[in-house]
Amino acid sequence: MSFELDTLHHAITWLLKPVIIILAVSVILAVLEAGLAVGERLFGLRAMRNSGNADAVVKLARHRLERADLLSRIPPMLGLMATIIPLGPGLAALGQGNPAQLAQAVTTAFDATVLGLIAGIFGLVIGKLRRRWYEDVLETLEDQSLGTQS
């Protein structure tokens, strides 16, 4: 039984670095996505309204909203993973009389949590704003369509 638990422990501990890398990439992607949203707000929405193509707007909106939704959900979960993973070895180190290792583990855990929350907050805000923007564009296109049919 001990071999299986040791193997499980090492496998889970191995996950910490990839999860932290993914979290850092998520923050970078969140910043890039925010920049895209600003450009979209300043220039893209007007072009969408002028295109008159509601189907293209719906397709684009679905794609961009899915990205924002993933960004708002996955990084916080990964942040939680990266919070819990180092705490096991940190608590074990405390039991062995090594509080410095516990302090390092707790620092890593909190930093990872912050990274996940930053990316998640960006994704949530971008998604909410985009939903409202796309709804406004689609309402405008619908009104234009009804106006030309009359």
Compact summary:
By secondary structure, this protein is mainly alpha-helical. 93% of the residues lie in helices and 0% in strands.
Architecture overview:
This is Outer membrane transport energization protein ExbB. InterPro entries: ExbB/TolQ_transport, MotA_ExbB_proton_chnl. The chain is an all-alpha fold. The chain has one domain (2-148). It is built from 5 helices and no strands. Helix 2 (16-51) runs parallel beside helix 5 and helix 4 packs antiparallel against helix 5.
The tally of beta strands, per DSSP, is 0
Give the tally of structural domains: 1
Percent range of helical residues: over 70%
The backbone outline, from C-alpha atoms, is elongated
How far apart are the termini?
Answer: 77 Å
Subcellular location: Cell membrane; Membrane
Pfam families: MotA_ExbB
Transmembrane segments: 20-39, 77-96, 102-126
Protein name: Outer membrane transport energization protein ExbB
